[in-house]
Amino acid sequence: MCLAIFSACAGNDDGQSSSQGEGDTGTSEPSQAPAEPGGEALPLTEETVTLTVWTRMVQSTQAGITSLNDVLAIQELEARTNVHIEWLHPAIGQEQENFNLLISSGEYPDIFFGLKDFYSGGLEKAYEDDVIIRLNDIIEEYSPNYNEMRHRNKEVEKGTITDSGNILSYHALSTPKQGPWYGTAVRKDWLDDLGLDIPVTYDDWHEMLTAFKEEKGATAPLWIHNRGTDFFGVLSAGYGVMHLGTSPNTGFYQEDGQVKYGPAEEGYREYITMLAQWYSEGLIDPDYYARNDLLAPDELVNTGKTGAMPDSYALLPLHKMMAGDENMHWVAVPYPVKEVGDQLHLGMRSNEVGANASITTACEDVELAAKWFDYITTDEASLLLAYGIEGETFEMVDGKPIPNDMILNNPDGLSVADARDKYTYAGMPGGKYYWERELVGLEDDALEAINVIWAESSDAEWVMPSDVSMTAEEGSEFSRIMGDIDTYATEMTTKFIIGAESLDKFDEYVETIKSMGLDGAIAVRQAALDRYSAR
Questions:
Q1: Residues 270 and 390 occupy one common structural domain
Q2: Where in the sequence is the domain holding 317, given as residue range(s)?
Q3: Whole-model pTM?
Q4: Domain-located, residue 458
Q5: How far is Cα 350 from Cα 359, in angstroms, rounded to an integer?
Q6: For residue 359, what is the enclosing H or E element?
Q7: Are 417 and 478 found together in one domain?
Q8: CA 469 to CA 344: how far, in whole Å?
């Protein structure tokens, strides 16, 4: 369930995959009217034309999905466009191996979904290697709807073009821009019992966690990730630094265009000094460093051992159900700050540019492929992919699409997630990703978390843009340096927090990191950021 929520919040970054049988063409007659002003009339072709698309399979097998062409929205898409997709999907867990074999063979499909994530060196290298084609002129001529969407703001424009000025893929574009779906959360029922206000400062957090331990018997008042952190730096943002995160990439951020590595900054000393104090007082999960959980483990949350943690907005209302405790009440709270009124610049920032798809040099009908992607970008097609067919899977209420019982109370007993997998396919590359469909049916606490509390916690201006990309050579150099640095920084962070190493050695720790080549890694990231800024 947790993985499904993270996938939904992030969009379908690699697309999904499948294969439809002949004659399985949906339920409605194709329209002859233009899809949207400036778009092509439907169907896109008089005779049915097949395009081959490679992508991983992430739709739910619980819904009986063995191919994307089993999905109602995909069937209807074919009925409208007269374009049949032969979906090529590798066995789950063998995606990279299958992708590599296809590349080695030179027998490419017409389209790759997610090539950016599988090709060593990324899109530019794939273009240099004559695997995919340049789309600048093609999009200008055949994809006017998509072209308009990608120019809606500078962030999207930069995220859909490479450092060299090439457009090499279509992307799913979030509509509207999504707020932060991850942040800090606490047990409001405990706060109320103890007469405590919502915590604002780190001092407030210390008071709250102490009360949770002493008055509520919490043995792990605060849960944190095993690297002394959380996914997006929501706990360390108040100290003005990015912490280790979950990979060697995530410790980096930029302040006024200058790249910095959080675990080597003075603010990091302050952050782990605080955590070391909290740990020594029994305010942090005593076994945090030995766990490897995406989110706080059920054994801590459901049994009342934990009262504060980083969390997903979609999970907030579910904890009481999973714990079987109607009195349990988790709510979002602002990221902690040192002083009331501090403006934060780090934390979580959702990316507007999602799943990617590239047309290969093997495609014999590039014009049709471009028109197909352009139709996907229209409101009409994006609504179909996100919500299904009006009257069958959703109803329009006050001008807004609302899923009906086919999704929310499926007659076949499917969960909401499985029903969506059976009837819809949100996040198709080239389309508008209507992420707000994930909000339907959620309680007010969850809606307030993503739309207000976490959204107002930080402007996230120092967060490194997700579309900053290194060249293949830079990537190799960065990995060579940061592999050792990340291992060392993780080891020392743990020792500092649990008291196995004195914080008096923090300066020595920083000097060691620098001697391991940190300046070189920063230079690589700086060059990549500078190129991104110049797009």
A1: no
A2: 182-349+444-453
A3: 0.84
A4: no
A5: 26
A6: strand 353-359
A7: no
A8: 25
